[in-house]
Structures are given as structure tokens and as C-alpha cells.
Amino acid sequence: MTQLYDTITTHFGPAAIPGNTLSGETVRELTVPRESFADAARLMKKAGARLAAEWGVDESALGRGFALFACYALASEYLLVRCTLPLEDPTFPSLTREYIPAFRFERQIHSLMGLLPTGHVHSDLRPWIKFEDWPADAWPLRKSFAAGQRLPRVAGEYRWARVSGEGVYEIPVGPVHAGIIEPGHFRFQAVGEDIINLEERLGYTHKGIEKRFETLSPADGARLAGRVSGDSTVGHALTYCRALEALSSCQPPPRALWLRALFLERERIANHLGDIGAIANDAAFAFILCQLSRLKERILRTNQQLFGHRYLMDRVVPGGVSADLPPDGAAKIRQELDWLVDEFERIIAIYDLNPSLEDRLRTTGVLRPDLARELGTVGYVARASGQHLDCRIQNPFPPYDQIPPVEVVLNSCDVHARAWVRVEEVRDSVRLIRAFLETFPAGELRAPCGAAPAFCSAFSSVEGWRGEILYWLQSGINGEINRCTIRDPASVNWLALEQAVLGNIVPDFPLCNKSFNQSYSGHDL
Amino acid sequence: MLKILHQIFRTGIVTEPLPEPVEAEIAVVGKRLEEAVLRRFSRSLAIREVDAGSCNGCELEIIAMNNPIYNCERFGMQFTASPRFADLLLVTGPVSVNMEIALRRTYDATPDPKLVIAVGDCGCNGGVFGESYASLGAVSNIIPVDACIPGCPPTPFDLLNGILRLINGQQPRQHHLETGSNLG
After folding, report:
1. What H or E segment, with its residue span, contains residue A361?
2. Given CB atoms, is B93 within the 8 Å cutoff of chain A?
3. What residues 147-176 of chain B have any CB closer than 8 A to a CB of chain A?
4. Pairing status of strand A77-85 against strand A27-31
5. CATH class of this structure's domain B21-167
6. Which of A216, A281, A304, A419 has fewest C-beta within 10 Å?
7. pLDDT of residue A463
8. Looking at beta carbons, which residues of chain B come within 8 Å of A310?
9. Which positions ≥6 away from B105 have C-beta within 8 Å?
10. Predicted TM-score (pTM) of this structure
């Protein structure tokens, strides 16, 4: 449980200083000297940890310069390794030599916070999320940057990866796509029908969410967190609230914990039903989509009827929940689930027995297990490529500690596996919800969530339907939000899509993309 | 194949009639098109959805409009892949700085006469994201908007009712938005 922590403290001795992240015993923080920041990464890599997140913090309000954090994860342990950057020299050793996902994290840190990764490995400092038509020295996450200002558009050019050779051509797609989906740009290089390179360009839905958190009271932050990625509103609001509760030592009552888990599993079922249908639809099997969207609609309507919102927005609040299970609620949910399971199994039998669908889904968009691990993927993307990652199992909070989920890990690594992980997870979420209802505690819905102490930080992780969501929350001098950093599953999983499509044909891209179904808004923030 | 047919017949037709709205879920803000044009649209309305920076919540409900229960195609509404043959832009927001140019180009690429509906609280007035260095707020700050359908997110029935009321030439009641400041 303290393997990563021990590795660093053994190696660095007194040079590694424990920090004050408040988040339970599986999360620890260590500050190391800046020049050793990459050495720590080497040790973590050797220990088998993944780089879960990397972010910068402007601590000038706390009388310091900048801080840089890298979050490593191994089994149930999270270790936050921090280093301090002086104001006059905001540079840090790049982690890209050890960790591939650091490329994107560090481009983002450089673009939005103006901290420069050094070391000869980092060759890619093109803006990320920030666009080339922003002034180069506009660093919104710095305290000196006024959130409300309008930036002038400047001339600039984005350097795309180029592929040359006989018969190579390029297909630009987006940001406005053909379907009803979020905006993003994909650039394919292809020969014939084969994709030989895909470069993503994201950031179109950047709304300044992390900066906006700094202007809100901690209590109001939950509403914003619930809109980081609308389809994961429960997951994000819950992760935020758990960080805030750790920060202000608030303990939500048991009934609230059960309701939160109920909401989280209902969100998982609804989204998985939609996704399985959409994957089949992209293989021209619209029947499955029509049938499953009917099931999804029933879930949403029960949500509306019992809890007052189809997607359960604003139902998770600091200290607990804002909606109770009505007296007849358990019976209604059981009835709904009985109907759902019966219908679901009929439809999935048809899905499973359709050879032409199988032909499209199997061996398409393969993400090899070693790549899934190297890229730090999470959620069903990771589990469909043999990775044993599920926060509900590794970092359970009640009721998951008493009613654990069944881990669903598959090894075929293709579109089919990503769809089938969802099928199994729908079945398991139904089982979990039934078990929650058997043990539903009585009592209060909400505990008072007091003010956060000054200059503290807290970290939380929750397995949303798409995968591990991370929040790191830091309070300022009056307990206000000094920094709220968000790592949606999409921030790492988008990297894997670029790799999974290589060698596939261009017409299979929508299918691959749908099987990942990553959030643009959750990534762009 | 038999299983598919069996399931289809078991399921039957699940499309529901559109309930009368309890209150008007739409606020008309722009200059209305000629009645004749609106009547023509009402039989065949090609819609291009544009996510100009939303959290994707509104997209969930716009997708749901297409499911067998809401079945927007029964009203002649179709979602098109290109603005080039769209009659109506359904725009969700807030408009991000990084989507401003793409939104303007999509608007320009849509042939006249055209309608624009801003969807969701964020599309109507910026919502929780407001206006900032990265968010330009309401859709009407960027392109002319004919109507707003508020909600976070508006339900599929809200959306269907809103669109139908706009194109059928009924006079929708003015709807007061709690935090709306960009309705003019």
C-alpha cells in the first residue's frame, strides 16, 4: 500500500518531504528537489507505476512560485510527487523520457500555465488546448491572468505531422462532424484505404473550467463539476465533492453514500446502453441502437420520476445528495431492472449471434495490452486490453467496500472487447444496484460541509462510467479554491485512439472512435 | 433473423404522442421568417446540429430526439451531415473561443432562408460557464438567433415542442429565462 512512497523515501531520504494532501491513506504527497523530478519518474516507472496525471499550480497567492505535480498510481496507491519552481525560472524536467502520456500533459501545462518542460526528449511544444491564434504569452491558469479578459486573435500556424510518399493523401475531419457529437479535429494520412497516421487536435470545447473554479465558492463548484462532461455528471460531481469533503473533513451520512453509488451505477448503465447501440449502429445494425435506446430512455425516465432529473445533474452535492429514494422507489427500481434485464438479454443474444456484426467488430481497432499500459489508459478502454484497473475495486468507498463490483477484463483488445466490457458491466451494475437496495441505510441525506482550512489540498478518484476520474483541489488563504485540477479519463484515452486505428481502414474509424467514445469537453476543460 | 423479427414484433411501435407543453419552452428572439417559408419547412426540416462548446449534455437529448420513442422524423425533421443542405441550425453552447470561427463558417455555409435555435441554458445565456477568456457565452453573441430553448439540458419533448412551435407559425408565449440577459 505504500510501495511507491517507500521507493521515493528510501532513495531520496530527507530530501523527500511529505506534503499535506488530505485524502485517506492510499494517497500520499512528497516534495522532491526540482532537479530530481525526472529521477523520481524513473523510479516510479521501474516500480511499475503509471503516470495518472501531471499538472502545474500557481502558488504565488501562497507566497511561493509554481508547483508541479506528477500523480503516479500502482494498484490502490496514488503518490503525488511535487516539485517547486521559482517564479523567475518556471522550468521543470520533462517526464517524457519515462512516460508517453507526459507529452500531452506537458504540452497542456506549457500552454495554459506557461511552465517550460526541459530536457532534450521533449521536442513537441506545440500549443495544446490553447490554439495558435492565442497570444503565445497568454497563460490563463496563472494568477496574474484575469479570467474575464478577451484575448486578441493573432496570426499563427499549427504544424501538423506530415507523411509523404507515393500515394499518401490526407483527410481532414472536423471540428464540426457529420453526426450529433462534440467538436474535434482528426487528420488522417492514408494510403488507399489504410490509415498510416492519425493526429488528433482537440481543445475546441475549452471553456476555461479550471480557471472558472477559482472564481466560485467551494459549494458552488459542485454544479460546475457536474457540467465538465454532461454524460458523466454524477461521476464528476462525486469526484469533486469527495475531494472537497476530504478538504473540509466532512463525512457524508451512509444513506447519501448508498444513493451516490446508486446514481453512479445508473449513469453507467444508461451510457453503456447508448454506447453498445451506437457501436452496432456504426456497423449499420440500427436495430440494436433502436432497441437499446428504448431501454436507456426507461432508465432516464425512472431517474426523472424518482430523483427529479433525467441525468441526475446536481443530485450529488457537497456533504451528501440532494434527492432521496422515495418510499416506493426501491420497488420501482427493482421492477425497472427486471424488465431491463429481460429485454437486454434478448437484444444482446441477437447482437452476439450476428456474424456480419462480428465480422466488423472483431480484430478492428486493436489496442495492444503493452500500449494500453504505456499510454496510461483507464476505464473500459484499459479493461478491454487486459488492464486490471477499476477504482471501485482498488479504491472503494462505501458501499463498494461491502458490495464489490466484479472486475471485467478482456484480452481481445478490439472494438468487440470494448463493447463487450460494457455488456458485462451493465449486467454487473444491475447486480450492484439490487444489492444496494437490499442494504439501503436509513438516515440523513446530507452532512454540513464546513469551510476548508487554508492552504490545504485534497485528491480524489472515482470510477465514472468512462473510467477513473481524478480531482485535485487546493484551498487558498480564506479556504477558497486556489486550484482545481481535473483529469477526465478522456485526457489519457484519446492518446490510445490514435494508436488503435493504425493499419485499419478509414471507413472503420467511426467504429473505432465510437468504441472509445471519449469526452471532448472532459478533455478540453 | 427470426429473433430480430420476433423482437421487432414483440416491441411494436413505441413512439409516443407529443404532449401539450405545460408552459412554453421556447423564447423567440429573432425576426420571424415569412409564414409561407415556415409552412414549407414544417413538412421537411433539415437540421444541422452544431456543438459550439457544450458539456455534451444537450447532445444526449438531441440524440434522444432521434430514438424510436421521440422519433422526430415523424414530423419531417431530419438531422443532416452538412450545413450545406440544412434549414435549421441547432446550436448548443456556450460558444467557446476555439469554436467561434467554425460556428461562423457553419452559419455562412447554411443557405438562406435559415433558422437558428440556441439550445440549453448555456446556448441561451452562457449558463454556468458564463463569459470568460475561453467562453463567449450565448450563441446570439456570435450569430443571429431566432429562438432559444432553455434547460439543462432541455428534454427531447422540450426540443420537439420548441422546434415545432417555431416552424408551425404558432405564436409562442414569451418565456422568461431566470438568468437570461442576452435575449435581445
Report:
1. helix A355-361
2. no
3. 152-153, 155
4. parallel
5. alpha beta
6. A304
7. 96
8. 61, 155
9. none
10. 0.93
Chain B CB contacts of A208 below 8 Å: 129, 132-135
Q: Which amino acid is at B105?
A: R
SS3 content of chain B, % helix, strand, coil (to 5): 40, 15, 45
Specify the pLDDT at position A208.
Answer: 95
In terms of C-beta density within 10 A (0-12 exposed, 13-18 middle, 19 or more buried), how is residue A369 classed? middle
Report the Cα–Cα distance between both ends of chain B, in Å, rounded: 55
Task: Map out the domains of chain A with their CATH numbers.
Answer: 3-118 (3.30.460.80), 214-478 (1.10.645.10)
**Dihedral angle at the C-alpha atoms of B122, B127, B131, B137, nearest 10 degrees?**
20
Helices (H), A86-208: 102-113
DSSP state of A62: G
Place of cell 511507491: A4
Q: Is the peptide bond before B111 cis (omega within 30 degrees of 0)?
A: no
Which helix or strand (DSSP H or E) is residue A420 part of?
helix A415-438
The Cα–Cα gap between B99 and B79 comes to 20
Whether B48 has a pLDDT exceeding 80, the answer reads yes
pLDDT tens sequence across A132-158: 999 989 999 999 999 999 999 999 889
CB-CB under 8 Å, A347 with B132: no
- The whole-angstrom separation of Cα B20 and Cα A274 is 28
Q: What is the 3-state secondary structure (H, E, C) of B115-161?
A: EEEEEHHHHHHCHHHCCCCCECCCHHHCCCCCEEECCCCCCHHHHHH
b/e B10-41 (16+ beta carbons within 10 angstroms → b): eeeeeeeeeeebeebbbbbbeeebeeebbeeb
Q: Considering only CB atoms, which chain B residues are within 8 Å of A297?
A: 64, 67, 69
Find cell 477484463 and name the residue: A409
Of A145, A224, A521, nearest to B56 by CB-CB distance is A521
Residues composing chain B? 184
Rounded Cα distance between A144 and A88, Å, is 14
Of B3, B55, B133, the CB nearest to A349: B3
pLDDT category, A517, cuts 50, 70, 90?
Answer: very high
Q: How far apart are CA A71 and CA A408, in angstroms?
A: 25
Q: Residue B178 has what pLDDT? A: 37
With contacts defined as CB-CB under 8 Å, which chain B residues touch A155? none
Contact by Cβ (8 Å): B122, B128:
yes
Interchain CB distance below 8 Å, B98 and A350? no
Please, which residues 102-141 of chain B have a Cβ atom closer than 8 Å to chain A? 102, 106, 127-135
* Residue A181 contacts residue B66 (beta carbons within 8 Å): no
**Which residues touch B3 (CB under 8 Å, ≥6 apart)?**
A346, A349, A350, A353
